[in-house]
Write a structure and sequence with these properties.
The complex is a heterodimer of chains A (581) and B (85). Chain A has 581 residues and is an alpha/beta fold. Chain A contains 18 helices and 29 strands. In chain A, a hairpin with a 2-residue loop joins strand 26 and strand 27. Chain B contains three helices and no strands. The chains are: A alpha/beta (581), B mainly alpha (85).
């Protein structure tokens, strides 16, 4: 299938020509009068001005770190790099008090030549610049520098599909950042994939996208910055900090601006259920919300039902939930709903599942089944294979295996890492000619054309030949007591002698709680794990609130938690460990 | 704690948590696992029950159907374990 090439540079020029005064992006401030927006023509003007300057000071193909918080400057900087032929690298801007260590690591890895940032960050950084002399020596581009330079004009350039568009650094469960190169071909294909999901709900004149997820991550970047001009929909952006401090601001913004598409990772919906008091929801109206995407971490059926239970009284339509699956390595999306029912939940026999088999269950006893939530169907001409990660043979239809994908959205590889690129992006299924495939590192299965994601391959807990998905155990722990934080747990395996043992770690809401004996709670956790999973935990630790290692996007870092457990670095409130034989 | 008291607690746990039927006429020498009355998945529950009720840890290699198939065998295992402490 040959799809027309979507080039973000041409898209923006075209919008500015056809619809110059239409709202392109709007940054929501704390108050409405603090909102800042660009129309298509304003955005194009700002982009061309910066691009002209970049063409003057840098060579095409050089890399630039984008160090901007959510805002018009971030968006302008991304587009300006594309216009100038510079390869932008969106990054997580460190707080004013935090070290530039991670930025420095990315800049070195990418051999970046430029830093596009705010004058405020530049000043803060320069105060401690002696720690990072190479980073300090890059070309710094701020609005102040731009103001002093004028008289340049942008020189249009030809973009080929195989050219690199930008580099997405993975949020990194590991300490060494890796950059995924996204070409214009990858970009174009993923834009088509996202387009393909548009069902009856989509209307150019009524659709409004609202994003609070960080723009330096694939979800915020692709949807919040680039998709909306392709779609001709206004993109409303709030900062992740606004959402994290008060998730009600997100829902209120959906109401106020009549947003039709918005979403986040699963934990965002949990946060709304847990943090938003009902009495604050008076007058809330979520009835415009047609697509509530849920992606970037495993989707829990329970989270979606709890959210629907709480917010359907405020006009939320539970059928708006749209789980999806993707990653920086595939530009953004792999699978999503395709016009029909957006959430499909399948009951799978638990015991068979633990042995890697998918057998639908009609049991009503939660001990006997797991609820698998479909992440939708693989989009456009994606090829998805479920493969045994050890033998590299394709799995049978009812088997769980590693998810491998092939398609034009799969990135070109990791920047400057030929070995890891070959391993991750160049996989071949034994005995088959197709490929190459990207190894996602996730376990899952296909059922009735739907893709189900079971969890990270490296996080899988294998004890005495049975497979335990950490998410399942974490959910059991969390349900034991209301003071155990939602999404605040990590389950993992440790090696004791010659066997693997299960360890469960979970955050408590507060250390001292009237009438709560944590040792009793731990006993109950051990009982529940045994009852629901048929396995004894060899250690259960309750730790302080917010002390569980997580990535900047809120993903649980199980291997880092395991390391802290082994090194006795966890902030323990109460614990139980099996006596060592 | 004597054997009878241990046995009564094991019986109460078995009826309530494993069989989920307080009226089941459970015999002290009735095989629970080998008979298929309960699946071996529940062995972990028996282990945690002994840990929390008697503060006694039975290591995995000893927590087997062979050793602990009947309420009587479970009680004996607990009694022996407590005596060793």
């Amino acid at each position: 299938m040959s799809l027309p090439f979507i080039n973000p540079i041409e898209v923006l020029q075209q919008r500015a020509q056809e619809d110059p005064d239409r709202l392109s992006h709007l940054i929501l401030g704390a108050k409405e009068e603090e909102n800042q927006g660009y129309t298509y023509s304003q955005l194009l003007h700002a982009v061309q001005e910066l691009a002209a300057y970049l063409q003057h000071i840098a060579e095409p193909g050089e890399r630039a770190l984008i160090v901007h918080p959510t805002g018009l400057e971030f968006i302008t900087a991304m587009y300006a790099c594309l216009f100038a032929g510079i390869i932008p690298i969106p990054t997580n801007p460190p707080g004013m008090n935090r070290s530039a260590q991670r930025l420095d690591a990315i800049a070195r890895d990418a051999r970046a030549a430029l830093v596009l940032t705010t004058p405020e960050y530049q000043k803060t950084f320069m105060d401690s610049a002696d720690q990072f002399p190479e980073f300090a020596a890059l070309k710094w581009v701020t609005r102040d520098a731009l103001r002093q330079a004028s008289g340049f004009s942008w020189q249009p350039r030809v973009v080929r599909p195989e050219d690199s568009a930008f580099i997405q650094y993975t949020s990194g469960s590991t300490n060494i950042p890796k950059g995924v190169i996204i070409s214009y071909r990858n970009f174009s294909h993923n834009m088509h994939a996202l387009h393909a999901t548009r069902g009856r709900e989509y209307s150019r004149d009524e659709s409004v996208s609202l994003i609070w997820t960080p723009l330096f991550h694939d979800m915020g970047l692709l949807i919040g910055v680039f998709l909306t001009p392709v779609d001709r929909t206004p993109s409303l952006l709030m900062s992740p900090i606004q959402f994290m401090t008060n998730p009600l601001l997100w829902l209120r913004a959906i109401q106020k601006y009549k947003a039709t598409g918005s979403g986040g990772p699963n934990f965002a919906y949990d946060l709304c259920v847990n943090k938003i008091p009902l009495e604050k929801c008076e007058g809330l109206d979520l009835s415009t919300w047609k697509i509530a995407y849920n992606s970037a971490e495993p989707v829990r059926a329970e989270t979606q039902s709890r959210f629907a239970e709480k917010f359907s009284a405020f006009g939320f339509d539970p059928s708006a939930f749209a789980p999806s699956y993707g990653m920086a390595e595939t530009t953004l999306v792999i699978s999503f709903y395709t016009g029909e029912k957006k959430t499909v939940v399948q009951r799978i026999d638990r015991s068979a599942f633990e042995q890697g088999q998918v057998v639908p269950s009609d049991s009503s006893d939660p001990k006997e089944y797991v609820q698998a939530v479909s992440s939708g169907k693989p989009l456009v001409d994606y090829n998805v294979a479920i493969v045994n990660p050890h033998t590299r043979h394709r799995c049978d239809a009812n088997e769980v295996g590693e998810i491998w994908v092939n398609g034009d959205s799969v990135g070109e590889g990791y920047w400057n890492r030929p070995e890891e690129t070959a391993h991750t992006f160049g996989a071949r299924v034994e005995g088959e000619a197709g490929g190459p495939y990207l190894r996602t590192g996730d376990l899952g299965f296909l059922h009735d054309g739907h893709l189900y994601v079971a969890g990270r391959l490296k996080d899988l807990v294998i004890v005495r030949g049975r497979n335990y998905y950490p998410q399942d155990v974490e959910l059991t722990v969390e349900r034991t007591h209301p003071l155990l934080r939602q999404g605040g747990g990590a389950a993992f395996a440790v090696r004791v002698g010659n066997t693997e043992e299960l360890v469960a770690v979970h955050e408590v809401q507060r250390r001292e709680a009237a009438g709560v004996d944590w040792n009793e709670v731990i006993k109950q956790i051990r009982t529940n794990i045994a009852r629901e999973h048929g396995i004894r935990a060899s250690a259960v630790l309750l730790i302080r609130k917010s002390s569980l290692p997580k990535t900047s996007s809120g993903k649980i870092m199980r291997s880092e938690t395991r390391r802290k457990f082994m090194e006795n670095e966890l902030e323990i409130v109460a614990e139980w460990r099996a006596p060592q034989a | 704690m004597d054997r009878n008291e241990i046995l009564q607690r094991v019986r109460a746990f078995t009826l309530k948590e494993l069989l989920k039927n307080p009226d089941y006429p459970l015999k002290d020498d009735e095989p629970l696992f080998s008979s298929g009355l309960i699946d071996s998945f529940a062995m972990a529950q028996v282990g945690v029950f002994i840990e929390t009720e008697f503060n006694l840890y039975i290591p995995d290699p000893e927590l087997t159907v062979e050793n602990m198939d009947t309420p009587g065998q479970i009680a004996d295992k607990v009694l022996a374990g407590l005596a060793e402490q």
